[in-house]
Amino acid sequence: MKKGRLELTWVGKDERIRLEPRVLVEDTEKSYGDPKAENMVIFGDNLLALKALEQDFSGRIKCIAIDPPYNTGNAFAQYDDGLEHSLWLSLMRDRLEQLKRLLSYDGSIWICIDDDESHYLKVLCDDVFGRQNFVANVIWQKKFSPQNDTKWLSDSHDHILVFAKNKETWRPYPLPRTAEMDGRYKNPDNDPRGLWMSSDLSVRTYTPATDYPITNPNGRVIEPAESRCWGVSKERFEELKKDNRIWFGASKNNSPRVKRFLSEVQDGAVSKTIWLRDEVGDNQDAKREVKQFNEKDVFTTPKPECLIQRILTLATKEGDWILDSFSGSGTTGAVAHKMGRKWLMCELGEHCHTHIIPRMKAVIDGEQGGISKAENWKGGGGFKYYRLAESLLVRDKDLSTKDHPVYIINPHYDAKTLIRAICKVENFHYRNQGRLHGVSSESRFLHVTTQLLTQKYLDSLSEDIAPEQSLLVYCTRSGRGLNLPPNIELKNIPRDLLAKCDFQEEK
Q: Best exposed site among 60, 85, 267, 312 by fewest CB in 10 Å?
């Protein structure tokens, strides 16, 4: 009997579309601040937006922080959160696969979710990112007060699933030490090395070689507790004792503990997997933060800035790229901006204009909410606003039948947009220079024309490239009996494009 692979299955899992890599079109009226800023707000379907980013950002994103629909069955003011379960899984699978392509080799992804889909999402991420790259399931305390009208148990937390692109090489950065952490260090014996705290010398991992009696200064013989042993060899214990690093208590009659000096601890602290609301904020904090940008239409499910700050502190350094493809009210972009990171946000809903843009404008102007004071934020920077161009090819309404669709070039496309779109589909970099419209390497170029391609036209193009170079020519019409040079390839618009992507119908 053949053994199958352990995997999560659902209705429609095998149904795939060939994504069209759309062109991003800047709307300069909605862009804001420094015109040289690289930050981007993208309005449109996030799956198509992620595909559009692939060519320029593949392998460049250090941290992805997303807060996708929880699929709770509720209908919120800004979006519907009640997809059929199999549709939700397909939606997430397709987007996670695109996100993985954008993630850098040393990057990580952090996904906020609740109990409704968290366990399915974990298995889905195991499949996309590799089970071996699972880092942790962080528990975030999102509420303080119990929900007394609940039918079962009052939920007080969300999950944050953390996956690394490559867990073997990825490591989180330490958290800043707090005054509370440092306040635990004292110096009751006036040790000249300064403040210290003590920790248990015994450990649970039993080794006979480190199971030996210790005599304290008052002569009491102390053995490790049952099933435990000391954490160091007898020889190492004697070295520590000689160096005044063993503490038997002020009475000198207690069990031995090892001294750890504040001056010797690392610059930061290791993060735990339980994040309490007094450390990273809760839902109420988040709503208060977004209310200042749109008091009349408060976003239903925002995340507090302190929560995103914690994620970006652990996952990034200043100047790294951050991506949020479920941007909601724009918290990730606001926090990334204040922390000196570069960011990309994608959002389809109208709250892109009612919440995200007003919020980011306020951040650039120096607003002082959220983490602003903690980050000493004074304002500055900017972003560019983009929308997704329409589909390159659309059905001709007059010529198409139900069984025989006829595709044409989108009539809304100008020459420049057409060239850029074909460059995207063929994975060429757009080149606004002469007749060589795209380049994929030092020796391979692209030319696009809607004119009749004649032999004379073709011969003139041949003069633009060297014999060792090659040229891909896309045209709508070509003359008969063309004599193609060996370094020129000819393709048809739209016929050859239809074999590459699934293009949308004109709406």
A: 267
The neighbouring-strand residues paired with 164 are 108
Domain with CATH 3.40.1350 in the chain: 393-498
| 3-state secondary structure (DSSP) of residue 133 | helix
Check: CB of residue 108 under 8 Å from CB of residue 165. yes
Residue pLDDT, tens place only, 480-495: 889 999 999 999 999 9
This prediction has a pTM of: 0.84
Q: Evaluate whether 290 touches 283 at the Cβ level (below 8 Å).
A: no
The H-or-E segment that residue 495 falls in is helix 495-498
Does the domain at 24-172+269-388 match CATH 3.40.50.300? Answer given as no
Residue 73 has phi, psi (to 5 degrees) of 95, 0
Instruction: Give dist(CA 271, CA 58) in Å, integer.
Output: 29
Nearest Cα neighbor of 409 from 504, 502, 494, 496 is 494
CATH 3.40.50.150 domain locations along the chain: 24-172+269-388
Predicted confidence at residue 76, as pLDDT, reads 43
CA distance 185 to 375: 26
For 393-498, CATH gives 3.40.1350
DSSP letter at 177? P
pLDDT in tens, 413-460: 999 999 999 999 999 999 888 899 999 988 999 999 999 999 999 999
Reported as half-sphere exposure (CB side, CA atoms, 13 A), residue 424 has a value of: 25
**285, 286, 288, 294 alpha-carbon torsion, rounded to 10°:** 180
| CA–centroid distance for 433 within its chain | 35
